[in-house]
Amino acid sequence: MSINSVQAIDAKALRQSSKRILVTGGAGFLGSHLCDRLLAQGHEVICVDNFYSSTKENIKHLLDNPSFELIRHDVTFPLYLEVNEIYNMACPASPVHYQHDPVQTTKTSVHGAINMLGLAKRTGAKILQASTSEVYGDPVVHPQVESYWGNVNPIGPRSCYDEGKRCAETLFFDYHRQHGVQTKVVRIFNTYGPRMHPNDGRVVSNFIVQALLGEAITLYGDGTQTRSFCYVDDLVEAIIRTMNTNDDFIGPVNIGNPSEFTMVELAQMIQQKVDSSSELVYRPLPVNDPTQRKPDISLAKEALDWEPANDLNAGLTKTINYFRERITNEQLNNAT
Ligand code: NAD
Ligand code: UDP
After folding, report:
1. Of 41, 67, 113, 203, which is most buried with the most CB atoms under 10 A?
2. Residues classed as catalytic
């Protein structure tokens, strides 16, 4: 067989395995990395975003790619497209962003889920929901297992996000049971990495930017609350694996890095890695801030054959490099 005919067969095989995939919230931090990875796998990607908590910056390198399409659209309104798979990532994730317009946050989770599930039902597409560890609220079971129902305040400032995501999970399971839609639910624990918004108030971006600028590092409360941080590449790998598991596997499945750190430990680690002289200062703890969070990832290990490849030290190095370059470029641009 000639090299040309081998190449033609490879191209045909790629076309056959290539899918048209919708990523809602595709311009956001996680969504943009997901678009990158799906395009690299040879798929067509349609990114839908209303830029509520992002800009085109995260996806501008994709705009000339013929396999990539960008649609400005708010998922709280219906959407008519023909797709094979849907990753429903649209929703502001940082407390600062989701508490800015709490009614819109609930609408995005609930109306957005109904609209995207309706699209999946009409087209027969498989659909994955980006749920969150916040469905466990301030957990009394530690580490959190998927069978734990959580400890969530239904009327607090975090409720628009927590309850919106819980209701979205309910909708995913009901569309599956009632309408036979192929659904998957992943519960994402704190994830960090390049393309986080520098001002979105999340702890990793806050601490790194503060350390790089030599500003005080702001610890909320006494800093003994814990979180477990997953590097973005590991997260993307896990959610794609979840989408590609057999149809019987619908989750929910925890995706995160089980190494647990206090916020003081995180601050000290970043201080040391940036070689920063920033002091640690203490600020009031936000209302209903969970005291501890750590995923039990036994199910992900077993069902997805997945576990994180990047520890916090390695992931922070890459993230610090990203913010260092970004801050330097912004300072240079402001100076000219
Ligand atoms: P992000 O804010 O960077 O991205 C969310 C994207 O959704 C943004 O581009 C935003 O403009 C878009 N969006 C918001 N409302 C929309 C609407 N009504 N219509 C269309 N687009 C809309 O946040 P992220 O960290 O990338 O989070 C992505 C998803 O993962 C979210 O659903 C979030 O709840 C979930 N998640 C993230 C984390 C994390 O640590 N990053 C943890 C748990 C869950
Ligand atoms: N946090 C902090 N200083 C900051 C930002 C956040 O101490 O400048 C704390 C926050 O109170 C919480 C933890 O870091 O206990 C993680 O906050 P983040 O907003 O990143 O995510 P979430 O609370 O949703 O896990």
Report:
1. 113
2. 161
The number of the ligand nearest the C-alpha atom of 133 reads 1
The CATH number of the domain holding residue 65 is 3.40.50.720
Write out pLDDT tens, residues 29-49.
999 999 999 999 999 999 999
Q: Which bound ligand lies closest to the C-alpha atom of 103?
A: 1
- Residue 262: CB atoms within 10 A of its CB come to 16
Instruction: Give the CA angle between residues 291, 294, 295 to the nearest 5°.
Output: 145
79 alpha-carbon distance from chain centroid: 22
Count of domains forming the chain: 1
State the CB neighbour count (10 A cutoff) for residue 65.
14
Structural domain including 172 reads: 11-335
Q: 55-59, 138-142, 156-160, 197-201: lowest mean pLDDT where?
A: 197-201
Mutate to test the pocket of ligand 1, among 30, 37, 107, 239 (most ligand atoms within 8 A of CB): 30
Residue 217 belongs to some domain of the structure? yes
Distance between start and end Cα atoms, the chain: 59
Q: Which pTM value belongs to this model? A: 0.95
Residue 1 lies in a domain: no
190 found inside a domain = yes
Task: Give percent above pLDDT 70 in the chain.
Answer: 94
